[in-house]
Amino acid sequence: MKRILIVKVTSMGDVIQAQPVVADLKRAFPGVKVDWAADEAFAEIARWNVGTDRVLCAPLRRFKKARRWADFKAIWASIAELRAEHYDVVLDIHGVYKSAIISFLTRSSRRLGYQAKDLGERGAAFAYTGRFAPRGDVNAWYGMRETVSRALGYTLEDPPIYNLQVPRATHTAADAPPPDASPLAILFHAASKDDKKWPTSHWAAVARDLLGRGYRVVLPWGSLAEHSEATDIVAQVPSATLLPQMTLTGIAQLIQDCQLVVGVDTGFVHLAHALQKRAVMIFIATSAEHFGNHTPYRSVSVGDGRRVPSIDEALQAIDHVHAVPTVPPASLSVGATPSAAAA
């Protein structure tokens, strides 16, 4: 096994949680080169993985929205780059048309993808020469790693290794933030869908609690709607800070420098987990057990996907990630199976 291509195009949280597959493959096949194919919007995440040898990307999402000629030319150029290497195996761990097309366009004679009933879009099955079935009885992120290990015949080892190295922020004397010894807490209130959002009154309560613990509390945003929601929270808690609009890398750098992240089911909280930050993830419409992060005393997920978690549940989770463990972490978990606790 000399070179492998992983295809995981979107979205942010999925791309982040798939990164340990790179380290898994390199442990299983010493000397193997591992490339990654992603949408341009998330390619920098794959580039942060120090174990990835080459990142292939194209503006697929942007082209779908705007249909610009420049984006079409970029996609066409990316096809030539994709075919410049011969892959011993292509692993499509996404399972939709766009990832299937990427897999099909490679020169590989071994292209593995999910069986038809487990694909995001069943028509994607045309691209594969072999199929694998996902584990449905464990945490999704652990299951994804195990699916690949079974497909290629190696034993999965824990813990997962993300190997993400976010570039350090560069500040001039003029734009350097003033020194502040207070720990930084980031509240990620925004979500891709409305049913994943937590009430602004709940966020305000958490912000007040964290300010009382001595934290600086900041709220990022990415759209006008998210700015409006963040403004509402800050209006209820004036000591919290509404951040300016930031890039993906800028927010990643902020996470790198923070001491606590609290957020809903969104990619940035998955990033905090991958960067080994203390993190609390709040699930409203999706299951914490299946899609959450569970590392005792560091990363906790609450919510079963059938109701809105209470303020007290979130505060108890914050207490947990601040606790000093009195037993070995491997023996404890919050809302997770033993296999999920390792993930």
From TrEMBL:
Recorded GO MF terms: ADP-heptose-lipopolysaccharide heptosyltransferase activity
Keywords: Cell inner membrane, Cell membrane, Glycosyltransferase, Lipopolysaccharide biosynthesis, Membrane, Transferase
Subcellular location: Cell inner membrane
UniProt key word Membrane: yes
Pfam families recorded: Glyco_transf_9 (PF01075)
Stated name of the protein: Lipopolysaccharide heptosyltransferase 1
InterPro entries, per database record: Glyco_trans_9, LipoPS_heptosylTferase-I, LPS_LOS_Heptosyltrfase
PANTHER family, per database record: LIPOPOLYSACCHARIDE HEPTOSYLTRANSFERASE 1, TETRAACYLDISACCHARIDE 4'-KINASE-RELATED
Record's bilayer topology term: Peripheral membrane protein
Entry-linked CDD domains: GT9_LPS_heptosyltransferase
Principal location class: membrane
GO BP annotation list: lipopolysaccharide core region biosynthetic process
GO cellular component, one term: plasma membrane
Reactions performed catalytically: an alpha-Kdo-(2->4)-alpha-Kdo-(2->6)-lipid A + ADP-L-glycero-beta-D-manno-heptose = an L-alpha-D-Hep-(1->5)-[alpha-Kdo-(2->4)]-alpha-Kdo-(2->6)-lipid A + ADP + H(+)
EC code: 2.4.99.23
Organism, as annotated: Paraburkholderia acidicola
Domain of life: Bacteria
